[in-house]
Amino acid sequence: xxxxxxxxxxxxxxxxxxxxxxxxxxxxxxxxxxxxxxxxxxxxxxxxxxxxxxxxxxxxxxxxxxxxxxxxxxxxxxxxxxxxxxxxxxxxxxxxxxxxxxxxxxxxxxxxxxxxxxxxxxxxxxxxxxxxxxxxxxxxxxxx
Length: 144
Fold this sequence. Notes:
This protein has 2 domains: about 10-65, Orthogonal Bundle (434 Repressor (Amino-terminal Domain)); about 75-140, no CATH class. The chain is mainly alpha-helical. Helix 1 (about 10-20) packs across helix 3 and helix 2 crosses helix 3. It has a two-stranded antiparallel sheet. It contains 7 helices and 2 strands, in the order αααααββαα. Pfam families: HTH_3 (PF01381). It comes from Gordonibacter pamelaeae. This is Transcriptional regulator.
């Protein structure tokens, strides 16, 4: 997926995931039982797939559907709302120095900590040139 484009459209995410899976539009269309034109229209953003179709696309390219969904974060307030929800779900809380911490006693904290550790390892591998950008983005789209 493109770097620098913080919030990609659903269509661009579908295309990036399909390409990362090494599939053509025709192959994804066949897996879904839809026309190739439908996949093309989704990728171009001229048509928005409904939630069921989005699930099927994710399954066809082997990723979690969350990697395809848009997250609308257009302001600091929007970003704070995401953090507030992470506080409730995973015990993410702010520190006085502006960094974040995870309350390891929170219900979903152990899973979150494990996921962040894996993320840190993959980011290190990218930064050190062990893996390329495409591999890193493909890994992010497969995280469950």
